[in-house]
Specification:
The chain is α/β, with parallel strands linked by helices. The protein is built from eight helices and 17 strands. The radius of gyration is 19 Å and the shape is globular. The N and C termini lie far apart (58 Å). The mean pLDDT is 94.
Length: 285
Amino acid sequence: MARSTGKPPTLFIIGGAEDRVGKATVLRRFVRLAGGRRSRIVIIPTASSFQDEVVAAYTEVFSRLGATDLSVVNPETRVDADDAEAVALIDRSTGVFMSGGSQLKLSQRLPGTPLGEALHRAHERGAVIGGTSAGASIMSQFMISMGDEGITPRQRHSQLSAGLGLLDGVIIDQHFGQRARYGRLMSMVAASPNLIGIGIDEDTAIEVVDRSVFTVHGAGAVFVLDCRAALSDAPEARRGAPMMVSGAVVHSLPAGATFDLREVRLLDFVEKHPDAAVTLATAKA
C-alpha cells in the first residue's frame, strides 16, 4: 500500500464535457494534483457504455499532460469489486479518475465494496480522487440517480441513491446549466434541507480540500443551493406538482471563487474573466 502523500484529502469534481483536445485546463489541474510526471493514475471507465473509447481518450490526454504511469480498473459486477489486483492498483495510486456515464452503475459496484474502501483509503492518504459527470455525482453520500430536467422544482420527480460518501452533507449534480438541472437539485435539497446542493457546469470543476473548502476551476460556474432556512411545501405537495420553496440562498461561483462548505459562505474571489477593455484602460491610466 502506498504511503501518505503528505497532502490533505482532495477531491476534484468535474461537471462533465471537460475540454480534452485544447488547453485542457481542468484535466491539466487534475494531473498536476496527482503528481504530474510522477503521478500514478487509475482510470475507472465503469459508468460508460463506451468503455474502450473512454480509456483511450483519457489515456491520450493524461499522457499528453505529462502522466506516464496509467492503469485501468473496471469492475463489471459488484463481485469484481473484490478483486485484489484492482484494489492494489487503487492502493498505490496518486490519482483516481472516474468517467461519465450512468451513476447507477457506479452506485451498484463501488459503495460498500473492497474497491470502494480502497478509494476511501486513497482519499485519506492524499491521493486526488477525480470524477466527471457520473463520476462527479458518486462522490457524495447521496446522489441524484435519475430525475426530470427543467428550471422549476417539482415534487418527487427525482430519485436519490447511495454514493461513495467521500464528501458528506452535500448532493452533487452535473451538466448543471447546460441541461437545466436547477429544478431537480432544488427539489432534492428543499426536501432534505440539511444537505447542501452543488450544481457544476460543464468544463468546470471544484477542487475540494479536507472535505471543507473548495475552489472553482474552468469555464463555467458552480451553483450552491442552501435551503437550511427555507420554507417548502415538500411534505404536502402531490407528485409532479411545482414545489414551493421560499428563502433559499443561491451562490453562483465562477473560476476564482473559494467557498467554505462547513460555514456555507464565500471565503475569497479572484476575478479570472476580467473585461479586456476595462483592464486595458486601467493599464493606461
